[in-house]
Amino acid sequence: MWKQLLHRIYNERKQNTWLYVELLIVLAIIWVAFNDLYKSYQLSTLPTGTNIENCWRLRIGRSVSTSIDEHPDFSQDYAAITQIMKNIRQDNAVDAIGLTVNSMPYSSNNSNISMYLAKDSLNNKKYVHGVLIRYYNKDVMRVFRCKDIHGRPLADQIPAIEKHYIIPTKSTALKMAGHTNIIDTLVTGFDNGPMPILQIAENIRYSDYEEVMDGCYEVITEKDLSEFIESEGATSNSVQVCLRMKQHMTQQDMENWLNKNKALISTSPLYINSATSFSLIKAGLNEYFVRQIKQRVFLVSFLLVCAFLGILGTFWLRTSQRRKEIGLLMAIGSSKAHIILNFIYEGLFILLCTLPLIILYIGYYITTGHLSSHEEIVIPTIITSVLSIITMSLLIIGGVLISAWSTFKIQAAEVLHDE
Amino acid sequence: MITLENINKVYRTSEIETQALENVHIHVNKGEFLSIMGPSGCGKSTLLNIMGLLDTPTSGELIIDNVNITSLGDKAAAKFRNQNLGFIFQSFHLIHSLNILDNVELPLLYRKGLSSKERTEKAKAILEKVGLSHRMHHMPTQLSGGQCQRVAIARAMIGDPKILLADEPTGNLDSKMGTEIMDLLHQFNEEDNRTVIMVTHNELQAKQTDRTIRFFDGRQIK
Predict the structure, then answer these.
(1) Where are the domains of chain B?
(2) Cα distance between residue A232 and residue A259, in whole Å
(3) Residues A238-262 pLDDT 10s
(4) Which of A122, A138, A206, A328 is the Cys-Cys partner for A158 at CB 3.0 to 4.6 Å?
(5) A14 — contact with chain B (CB < 8 Å)?
(6) Domain B31-58+71-220: which CATH class?
């Protein structure tokens, strides 16, 4: 049977070449769509460099109101918020609490800078542009469990004596120096002048659906925080009090906890107004990407339907042209199932002929890929290729089945009769 | 060998009902060469298709070799056709994407227990018998009408069928080729005692057969 099948495919090579080209194009389109979706899925499962489990953002309210005309007095704000945090930290349910400025994760108001190693000569500077910067002290690092490239907590590595340090992420370090052995090296590009590198942090991503971006932590001092808060006020949206609880809590649990600890969370002129979980903040930032992915899923579904109709049309035409052959095969003893199987084998064999090209393309794609590791490119490429081929096979089988079904409604005698 | 009892065939559409066969009773003996004659549309090809299990009667029974095969399922009917029946058509119905050898081998693909080599040997032998061994690697389009029909006869005979059903086998051929084909059919009928049932418009060819039955408007008139 295979001999006849191969002879037939070869003898109809002109017609089959067109079919081959069509299958190859549809396969390529399906692969691009699947690869795009799979990359989004894969990104959503990768670590973001920030652990927000059981973490909350506390919003600050002011108990003493000031009139519009009156110049606001923020001189007591830093002392008050520091006292509130100290009180909260003493509660057994609390794991860690810290204060940061415009730097909490999953927030759209993180800043970017450009930086380079200070020791590099003027002509040899390797600027890294668009570096996401987060101003964290030891407490905030404890809240978000920031880690170095060896998986050790960064909070434990910050010296007791307060000083400005920079902790670039791995990707930033690699771009600046080509390696990560740059601890204690000075980095330039900041308002505070060159700062030494304290450690190299693990990579960070801005959201669950974006690739690793260059980033760094600037270790801020108490002086930095107090100056900012006394100038802008603790109720400014830029001031972000971040809290990690020891156990999971619902919104209602957190509200109950705040109500129960009213005395602890209030120090004139400030008090804790409300709490928002970071999972909710994250969902808000991810919403845009999720909406985009949903649109892409819709487009891929539409594409699959179009591809199916195209394949169905092709095989319908192919099967219709061979009605007499079907009649003859039935006359000489072939069952309907056998005929359908033969047509499916033909389609699948031509699909199989696209494999060498696919393997060549995968090889090219892998060797010229921009992603950093083989796990990120080889496995997904193979998975999406296999998925695409399976989908194409199903489309072919469906196309043959539907077109053959309509042909079999006609008796073999009708298609063989010549009168 | 073959018995048709009270066979009726009605084609129905939403607007019209056509009685293609009406109360047909026929018995064909083993080894008999039977010809069926009649004007176009009288039901002779329908009858042949019913005998060949390519069509089903609206009512009546078809018995071949004492087996009632009217109610055979798709798979069983396919197996029965493959093992017992050989078909020859007016338009040859060769598969143009296969060469002559592959075309002749086709019925053996549905037989279990035959190796590819055995199939090829059998095909070569039968092509030798019909005088086309030198053309076995040619494509059907490279052959004349008479040669195509000889290939079709070789394909019909390769599975050693007990019954050969020929639907106007010389209809598309000139008289010389027609005679050659008739000689081949007689040869297969006489040498191996096979039953041959042939639909024809040719009175001369019908006279060469053992018996002729005639149809008019779906009814057997003689």
Answers:
(1) 31-58+71-220
(2) 28
(3) 899 999 999 999 999 999 999 999 8
(4) A138
(5) no
(6) alpha beta
